[in-house]
Specification:
By secondary structure, this protein is an alpha+beta fold. It has 7 helices and 14 strands. Mean pLDDT is 84; it is low at 178-199. The structure holds zinc ion. Zinc ion binds next to loops.
Length: 306
């Protein structure tokens, strides 16, 4: 006979100090999404997971936010985590938290799910589960300050487990201290800075990837055959319901790594915008797409009114 693996069970324990620091962060951002990483310990035995969140990593000074988008400052968090690991070697990175109360979406987005399935099934993922804590609304009563939901993803499992409140416990404990990150000691005359190679990995690419997969899944990353230059291509749905096929390309000759954008759409209403964008450069593909989309929509909107 076939042996079916038993349905997994979960319990989650949260240190109150960690939860309070999540809510403190939420209080700072009431229009844009924010978030951070969840740290702690866990036990996994025979399909039972006991997860204890003991601290959080702040999003970091270079985190990027919008009402529908949040990207953590991974470099900063890596430094914080390494510093914590020294005094707490048992601590693991258990998952992430982020907010939706600012956009009103009451559960994980399609992009969130895609990202978390990819993360938990990644070869370099150190745990066989991923814990996603989502802040879904602000409580008028203020106690607790926010309503949250808890989701667990497992490696090799297509299910998403939402953990009911009865299986989530708060314990009175302060958050793990996150010490100041080691200061980067690179001096301005550091020769490493002067010999930065143009072939160094471009950090914007990974951020673009994450952003497009969540908010513009129609845009695909491609590689120009002749030059090996990466570009993004796909349809934008505009305010009048029309589709504009756009291409945004990295300028590999430019050490500052600028991006340009263009469309094959020939609507005369947007002719002026297209002319302007021939000259414009952006620091990432997502910046290019967001500005372009907004300007095209404004032109179309004005065009229909004029
Ligand atoms: Zn989300």
């Amino acid at each position: 006979m076939l042996f079916r693996s038993k349905k997994p069970t979960f319990s989650i324990t949260l240190a109150r100090g960690a939860v309070e620091s999540i809510f403190d962060e939420c209080d700072k951002y009431d229009a844009d999404e924010t978030g951070g990483r969840l740290l702690g310990t866990y036990r996994h035995q025979g399909g039972r997971y006991d997860i204890e969140v003991k601290g959080v990593l702040e999003p970091g000074p270079n985190a990027q936010r919008s009402p529908t988008y949040f990207l953590q400052d991974g470099d900063h968090q890596e430094k914080l985590f390494r510093a914590i690991e020294v005094s707490h070697p048992e601590i693991e990175h258990l998952g992430n938290w982020h907010t939706h109360h600012v956009n009103g979406y009451p559960t994980l987005s399609g992009g969130d799910k895609e990202t978390y399935f990819r993360t938990v099934n990644h070869a370099k993922q150190n745990t066989d589960f991923w814990y996603a804590l989502l802040v879904v609304s602000k409580n008028r009563s203020g106690n607790p300050r926010y309503a949250v939901k808890h989701f667990i993803f497992r490696r090799g499992d297509d299910a998403i487990y939402e953990i009911p409140a009865k299986d989530v416990r708060l314990v009175e404990a302060p958050p793990l201290l996150s010490p100041e990150p080691a200061v980067d000691r690179a001096e301005p005359h550091d020769p490493r800075l002067q010999h930065r190679q143009p072939s160094a990995p471009n950090p914007e690419r990974a951020k673009d990837q994450e952003f497009f997969s969540e908010f513009f899944p129609g845009l695909k990353a491609l590689l120009a055959k002749a030059s090996g230059v990466p570009y993004w291509k796909g349809p934008l749905t505009l305010v009048d319901g029309s589709l504009a096929e756009v291409v945004t390309m990295e300028d590999s000759a430019d050490l500052a790594r600028s991006y340009s954008i263009a469309t094959s759409c020939k609507n005369p209403v947007i002719a002026d915008i297209l002319a302007q964008y021939k000259e414009r450069k952006f620091r990432s593909a997502r910046h290019a797409v967001l500005h372009f989309e907004r300007d095209l929509n404004q032109a179309l909107y004005r065009g229909t009114k004029g």
